[in-house]
Every structure is written in structure tokens, then in C-alpha cells.
Amino acid sequence: MDKLRVLLTRDQIAAKIAALAAQITVDFAGEAVVLIGVLKGAAIFLADLAREIQLDASFDFIAVSSYGVGRQHSGEVRLVKDVDSSMGGKNVILVEDILDTGLTLAYVRKLLRAHQPKSIKIAALLDKPSRRIEPIRADYVGFQIPDEFVVGYGLDFAERYRNLPDICILETPSDGA
Ligand code: IMP
Ligand code: MG
């Protein structure tokens, strides 16, 4: 059995997302934005963030897979699903569950820059700055967290726990069997 310890409650998450959305609403006042979620982890964050943003907003999704064993990132990222339409001239906000090594978002941002968007920003619910390999920072950060493996609110361990409403530290990861 995995042992879970609550790090961030659903109420803390909801309050933070309302604040992030209010900031985005102010920053892009009078403009349209495209929220691009990085599947699958960001799906829940995007759904909640989008409903708090008071702007003309549309969604798109991208899926990537990173190679590695366990928590070891090989540094190689592969595109599994591209955006559906061009981001040329758009205000793009990349929505990600967690910024860890930064390899994933660095790759995705480079890919989208090729579309020549009007602007490109990053919204990350969680940030583990101590793990960074790529020097990348998010424009909108929910919570900076210590170097612990977390699950819930979209984040998984071997595809499990994404549906937990709170964000929890996975204290004794099992082998996922
Ligand atoms: P990065 O490329 O190392 O920044 O990886 C970011 C991705 O790694 C996130 O989108 C998550 O899918 C995954 N990840 C990083 N840390 C955690 C964690 O603590 N729990 C669950 N997934 C994580
Ligand atoms: Mg992810």
C-alpha cells in the first residue's frame, strides 16, 4: 500500500487558482488567450483555471512523453500529440501541472515558438526549483514545493491517483503493480 500525506488541500488549490486566474485576466485584459494543456497531468488544472479566467479563451492540448527510468529523466522528450491549429499571432499560455527538471516545458515552448505566437507564457501549478536542469521559469506559479514526489489533482504515479482532489506526497512508492 502506498502511503499518502496531504501537502495541499483542495481549498488551498482552489484559492490559489482563483488568484492566478485573476492575474491572467488583468494581464491579458481585452485580448484573447489560448490555453494549451500538457496532457495528461494538466487536464484538471486547466479545467479549473479556465473557468476562473474572465477572458475570451480557447483550449488546445499537447501530449509529450519523456524517456527515463523512474524519476530519472533521460533528457529526451518526444511529441505524442501536437496542437490542432496554428498558434501564429495568438497569446499562448502553456498550462502544466508541475515544473520539475524543465526539460518538458523547454521542449514544448521551443516547438510552439516556431508558430510565431504573439506571446507565450507558462502557468505551472507546482514548481520544484531544486530539480531544474533547463533554466526555465513559469510566469504564473501556484506553489513552490520541496523535492518530494507528489500525486493527485492530475498528477500520477504509474497512471494512478490523478483523481485525488488534494495534492499528496507519495511517501512509500510501491512498484506500481
Ligand atoms: P520535467 O520535464 O522534469 O519538468 O517534467 C515535468 C513532468 O514530470 C510533469 O509534467 C509530470 O508529468 C512529471 N513529474 C515531475 N514531478 C512529478 C511529481 O512529483 N509527481 C508526478 N509527476 C511528476
Ligand atoms: Mg505532465
What does this molecule look like?
By secondary structure, this protein is α/β, with parallel strands linked by helices. Helix content is 22%, strand content 37%. It is built from three helices and nine strands. It has helices at residues 10-27, 43-52, 103-113; strands spanning 4-8, 32-39, 56-69, 72-81, 91-99, 119-127, 140-144, 150-151, 167-170. It has a six-stranded mixed β-sheet with strand order 4-3-2-5-6-7, sandwiched between helices. Strands 1-9-8 form a three-stranded antiparallel β-sheet. α1 crosses α2. The longest helix is centred in the first third of the chain and has 18 residues, at 10-27. It is globular and about 50 Å long. Bound molecules: inosinic acid (IMP) and magnesium ion. Magnesium ion (MG) binds at residues 38, 41, 97. Inosinic acid binds at residues 38, 41, 66, 73, 96-104, 149-151, 155.
What are the SSEs and their pairings?
Layout (H helix, E strand, L loop, with lengths): L3 E5 L1 H18 L4 E8 L3 H10 L3 E14 L2 E10 L9 E9 L3 H11 L5 E9 L12 E5 L5 E2 L15 E4 L7
Parallel strand pairs: 2-3, 2-5, 5-6, 6-7
Antiparallel strand pairs: 1-9, 3-4, 8-9
Helix pairs in contact: 1-2
Bound molecules: inosinic acid and magnesium ion.
